[in-house]
């Protein structure tokens, strides 16, 4: 089992839990540039570290982001998602006032929904390549 990519150990378990997350901007506004996505990745990596999870891959386009996270079984994925969306929304709106004009009706960056898919059927390398190939806006 040591040969498997992403296998981690906990106090009482060995695990390889990966989730593919997709967050869409509120009203699907196309607001992100490459600069926004670079900072978003830094923020989300910090949140993941706080949750003892690993952000394996990150990319996005003007109106959504993709994350591949490796997480321990003690983490409720919904709590991780709430923190990722909440912290990134707050920090991005503070650091990039230009984003605020898109959200005058509701001070939120993200749509209330999200996609979370367990990853296991396809090799992680295939999913990683898919996320890497997302188009980043210039």
From TrEMBL:
One of its GO terms (biological process) is DNA transposition. GO terms for molecular function: DNA binding; transposase activity. InterPro entries: Transposase_17, Transposase_17_sf. Residues 14-134 form the Transposase IS200-like domain. SUPFAM superfamilies: Transposase IS200-like. Gene3D superfamilies: Transposase IS200-like. This is IS200/IS605 family transposase.
